[in-house]
User: Fold these one by one.
Assistant:
Number 1:
Amino acid sequence: MKIHEYDAVIVGSGPAGAAYARTLHEEAPQLRVLMVEAGPSLSKPPGLHVKNLPDPKARAAAQLASQGPVTSLNPESPVPGPGRPGTFLLRPDELAPLAGMPAAAMSSNVGGMGAHWTCACPRPGASERISFLDDGTLDAALGEAERLLSVTSEAFADAPFSGDVRDRLKRAFHRTGAAAIQPMPLAVRKHPDGTITWSGTDVVMGPLAEPTTRGDFFELRAQTLCQRVMLDAGHVTGVELKDLTNGTVTQVHAPAVVVAADALRTPQLLFASGVRPRALGRYLNDQPQVISAVRLPADVVQSGAGEAAAGAAVHSGVSWVPYTDEEPFHGQVMQLDASPVPLAEDDPVVPGSVIGLGWFCATETVEENRVEFDDTSLDHYGMPRMTINYNLTWKDLRVIEQAKEAVTRAGKVLGTFLDDRPPFLLPAGSSLHYQGSVRMGQYDDGRSVCGPDSQVWGTEGLYVAGNGVIPTSTACNPTLTSVALAVLGARSLARSMH
Ligand code: FAD
């Protein structure tokens, strides 16, 4: 019999993997946990959000280091091309805007995309919620996810233009209750001197982020690729790891493995391990993103310009137009220079006066929309090559038109559009919110990969985590929800190990 070197191995160090590590540590501190991450560590403590790095050169270097290997581990597969800063594109050669997913991207670094994200953490509403999880369980898990990510709606409460922005949005969207126009909940901490810290996975990891406080029970290995999860008769026995600094391959024995390797690479690793349930990689959905930008009216800008210029608030806040079943999209309304999507480059800006409008749409969950893997062809990491088959349905296209109309409505009440272009759709994959590829289900009916505890059907000790687990059609930014599902999974795993 093999001696277990660890009680659990976590593959991937983004917010979902970090939530497993922290929750396992809090629920069962005696467990020995190894976390492996293919990308490099960017910071001390590891997992810091790159926006917290004060030196722009250091920030740019950290983003670059997250964009995949600079030399391919497989001579037949070229190195990936860069996506948005901190990300790399799956297939930089695919450019058709409405077929496939040309903007599908990933990050490879300690902290994953959680070192680069915008930190918007809305709760799912109405039919975005997972109906087979009872409301109390889901809400408590979302609350715990908010604690782990340090989510607040108050960080920009005193931003000079934010009150005006929301008052104007209320004229265009008549909403009440949970769907009312409100500040976007954000994973940030505001300090007494007014400065902001953006939550990376160092925040989620808490004491585990610091070598001095993590103790001997937790280990993080960067630049370590998990090539395969090892199984014996439906039970996890460990992982096969490749040290990317020297190519050495080792096996680590553990009775539980959590694959939190993003919505594309989690199913890739299961496929590489011979775990290939019918739903693997299927039901993939992205959130089509419609964007535009407006300039606030001069009187609004003048009323708050003193404060903004004095640096009272670098950001004018982020406002939220929540999802409803009638309008199945949600709006993120934010100061443009706080947005990861550049919209207008040739216009000097009074801080906070140019507002980006980003509407994320829910799409139908369609079995045929999928990421497929190839046994015979490998990617630049030496893992099964991925191809995405993805098409929008007629219903999706109608929702996108509805969202364009909503952005126009919002823009008209907020000010003047920056250019003549009507609100437009970004190429598929731009949202970076990919879901469904290892989806959770209530029953093992061939339409899901894991059960409500995130354990892969019929495979004891194998857990999946991240946005790919989310089974519903959602428009809200997914990280809060996937961290909540990770909390439920980690608690279940901790219980099973007592
Ligand atoms: P990731 O954070 O992607 O981490 C997965 C990690 O697994 C990666 O580091 C990867 O290298 C590693 N990995 C993969 N395969 C292997 C392997 N075989 N072996 C070892 N390691 C492996 N979401 C929101 O909810 N709100 C936002 O406002 C928001 N804004 C965003 C803005 C930007 C610019 C970006 C880039 C993302 C944004 N997102 C946002 C998306 C958010 O960052 C992701 O939802 C979140 O990081 C997903 O967490 P994860 O842990 O599942 O995966």
Number 2:
Amino acid sequence: RDLAELGSLLVECRACPRLVEWREAAAANPRAAFRGQTYWARPVPGFGDDAARIAVVGLAPAADGANRTGRLFTGDRSGDFLFAALHRVGLANQPEATSSDDGMVLTGVRLVAPVRCAPPANKPTPEERRRCGPWLARELELLGPGVRVVVALGAIGWAAALRTLEEQGWPVPQPRPRFAHDAAVPLERPDGGTVTLLGSFHPSPHNTFTGRLTPAMLDAVLDHARRLADL
Ligand code: SF4
């Protein structure tokens, strides 16, 4: 099976009744700014380079962001901030992401998530995260040992990534490593090799409007990831 096949299977998943209902309700009642648009309203596959050396892990699609456009981080302010940074450090061919056919090409990077359907209040339940974990694990397995760095966005994304990898058989150190901006933790892959887990504050409006995360701070983490990945 390859990444495209995995994506085709993923988009058919309806394993979490609460999230299926939520993703479809968002499509039926779009925000005023998006009225008239057809929402994707399905699980959102990974996006980016099939030969990625860096995986960027968020938490889950936003109801009016990726759940609308069908592409992770595309169509909301967090994504706008992230794609602009990826472009500045040379990992994206353009700074703006607006839709799934906007010409965006990522080099060496793939955007993934531990939960693939938009959850109410952006909070999946532990059970929903566990149910979705095998999709992320399988994607990382298909990307293979070429992946050298996993950038986790936010303390919640960091914890979700670690729990998911642990449940999927990765030997995660105990106690689990603590999140910090630019924290770097080596993790063993179950199929051999090492991946560095790298933390970054989440590029949410809450963090970027308050200056907790500046463009220079995100650029520095992505640049760190690039160096660790030899890109
Ligand atoms: Fe399936 Fe994951 Fe969506 Fe649950 S969150 S319905 S497991 S794709």
Number 3:
Amino acid sequence: MVGGGQGAYIGNIHRIAARQDGAWQLVAGAFDVDPARGHAFAAREGLDPARSYDNYKAMIEGELSREDRIDAVAICTPNFTHFAISKAFLEAGFDVICEKPLTATLEDAVALEKLVRDSGRFMGVTYTYSGYPMVHEARHMVATGQLGEIRTVQVEYPLEWMATAIEAEGNAQAAWRTDPKKNGRGGSIGDIGTHAYHLAGFVSGLKLESLTADLATFVQGRALDDNAHVMLRYQGGARGLLWSSQVALGSSNGVRLRVFGDKASLSWFQEQPNELVHARLGGRTETIKRGADDLSEGAKARTRTPPGHPEGYLEAFSNLYAGFAEAIYAKREKREPSAIGRDIPTAYDGLKGVAFVDAVVDSASASNPSWLKPIVV
Ligand code: NAD
């Protein structure tokens, strides 16, 4: 692992998630931008001190010199570092799991995605919400025509944690997220809007035609947007509306997706992630529960416990790790991955996310509201 040391947020989620199914073991790392803190963290994790490195370059050199070298690296650092670290590991021949957004600039995302293709390495990108079984069930229901022709997609990711200027009060996570050089051009839209955009496309199967965006910064002095509204026109005529907000009081990771077709609609809400609400034309509504016998292969492959026992965020993240492991084994063994290793987020999804943010910021910066097409959809 690179990053994710003491006091960091997502690194610990990666470690919990990776360990859950026994497919991954944490054996080496450069855990902190401060080497001493990184080593102290590695010692607490019980790592071999020889495999706790000062920085990612030393880690690559050290691991390449070992017979029992790492299989893959998880990159859990702020956005602006993803490109250089991923590139170095890919070029050294390692598979990579990288946090979203893939990179801080579109130019870097394009180059990185090309490098993944040219190198033949695997690169997974942790779009968390595509790890949920009921999100896979929703995708399956759309793909098998159970909603009919898709007309509209409503997706939102509201948060309240940056509703005040916490970046000025020593909050490490908020500090780099509000610095355009470290975060990238999109504030809330890059941080959480990318999750919403991925989720909407993943479930609906729709590809974007164009978008028009309105970005706002409500907290005084903040350099990036903390609220975004984006109207989406999908290829084929469907419409979408995406809202991301870091200033939505009362909301805590309330990711919500609703997809409306001409036969039925679906609704999924991350605070009740074990349920999918399916409403058919004419008023019949059913709640589909995780673990039901007749769910799709993709949903079943991501389910660990019987219905009624709650599964959630950590299990969804574990599903990504289980999927990445299966995809890597399948690639090595030159076979098709089983269900858990299919429909997983990869470098191309990461590139699409960065292209989306870039188009959103360009659209919102234009003097007249404009409809723009991201460079990849
Ligand atoms: P954080 O500030 O809590 O942690 C960053 C960590 O990276 C720290 O330990 C820091 O010391 C380390 N670091 C920074 N530069 C480094 C370098 N060059 N080498 C080694 N370590 C370095 O950040 P966070 O909130 O955990 O976010 C990290 C990444 O995860 C971001 O890209 C963010 O967008 C993403 N994230 C994703 C999700 C998700 O749901 N998938 C959720 C939160 C964050």
Number 4:
Amino acid sequence: MKDSDIEDAVARVLSGYTGVAAPKPAFKPAPEGCAWEATKPADPMDDIIGGILTRALSERNCSCCKAGDCKGASGCLSISDAEAVELGDGIFATMDEAINAAAEAQKKYLFCSMADRKRFVDGIRAIFTDPAILERISRLTVEQTGMGNVEHKIIKNRLAAENSPGIEDLVTEAQSGDDGLTLVELSPYGVIGAITPTTNPTETIICNGIGMLAAGNAAVFSPHPRARGVSLLSIKLINRKLAALGAPANLVVTVQAPSIENTNAMMAHPKVRMLVATGGPAIVRTVMSTGKKAIGAGAGNPPVVVDETADIPKAALDIVNGASFDNNMPCIAEKEAIVVNQVADFLISEMCRNGAYLVKDPAVIAKLEARVLTEKGGPKTDCVGKSAVWLLEQVGVKVGPEVRLVLMEATKDHPFVQEELMMPILPLVRVPCVDEAIDLAVDLEHGNRHTAIMHSTNVRKLTKMAKLIQTTIFVKNGPSYAGIGVGGEGYTTFTIAGPTGEGLTSARSFARRRKCVMVEALNVR
Ligand code: NAD
């Protein structure tokens, strides 16, 4: 769109509101700092014009980007892999610089309107629902981390962009009475330090970025070093887009070389008021012991229980789909099946009809154990997030691409059952009855309070398991990913905080409850 077209469009819209042709506004580039603050209108109509103009300008930038002829301009989303890790657009040399910049940005952000926040959040959604960007970040993640599959990462990234709650999540409470009116509002913490995992690097940046900005915060990300390139690219894309929308610069930042030292510096920095760790037990323990407000979203070991009342063909398909999703890397994915003996053979045969490969030979199982487990019994990093075809190939079994899951029977003490493997190997434990299945599931979940799944048509047993297991997510008669909004109702989160109790985090989890009291007034009942 040309500048003159934009001006004409604004004039046309204005004449619709006023009934008379409006004077053409002068061209203004996207302002530095908050758009609302910089162009604070004397007349509400100016606000409408400002919104139209900013949107038109950002559309202009986007179409330029796609044509590749606005390189380097504010809002240009055409960033090469090499450029993604250069300084600028939210990428800083040191953690101290990054945090100071975010703190400055957040001070300006306090004076932006809720409508501005929504525009900025919508801007983030727009970046990561663009099919070309979705494909690129998903492919880069697989290339850089060596884990997962592109197709499923596209689904996860899109889900984070479309379905993470925004400002509508911040609901104000009001109490009125003889003594006046009190409001309880959800207010930002300030600068939040967010640590992100290798398994969902971009999904977590998108999801946390939307929630933290919606709640009025600035975010400092500490990505996993293995996902450095794609994490920095995502942060740079967000900064470019926010700049085009007139947001304060550096609301979302990180360092050029993410490392454990930098994460430690972030956690210790006095300007970081809240920490959010999405990762394994070590980092969750670490943030919880900093003395700061911390949200810990830690490991899971989700059991799936199947009883004799379940729709077995459906349960089999759901389990294969859930346990093979992104090569079993989601923390919510089925990690072990506990099946009532009466239906176990039927379930196994149905799973094999739907992409599971049953390994029965004890020698092959022994080879698999040796290949994928460390001496301590945990998963070897180079096997995490690999495909079933790759894993079987490692132990001399050649299968076609239709195989999505390695299935084997095991006893409850087997390390594949006890450990969170994060690869598409599903051990199946037989039990005599549903009550034993539920007890074992509670045991194998290890008190993570993360995710569990059950296939049953017995409402009493479903209720019993839900009560006893106390997980944040409990999926009944569906694949695990229904719990994050793929084919299940409800919003999406990639930070499921069992240990610290926030559970399904969203914008309101990144906000403080503050009280505003008006005494002896504004009670109009
Ligand atoms: P990880 O714990 O190895 O790393 C997570 C992040 O913490 C990374 O950024 C890493 O650099 C950092 N980190 C780890 N140890 C650290 C230390 N001692 N000091 C400073 N920084 C440290 O986990 P991962 O392999 O990236 O991710 C997989 C794990 O995360 C699994 O256990 C999975 O269940 C869990 N996870 C949980 C959720 C959830 O919502 N609960 C979501 C995704 C992943």
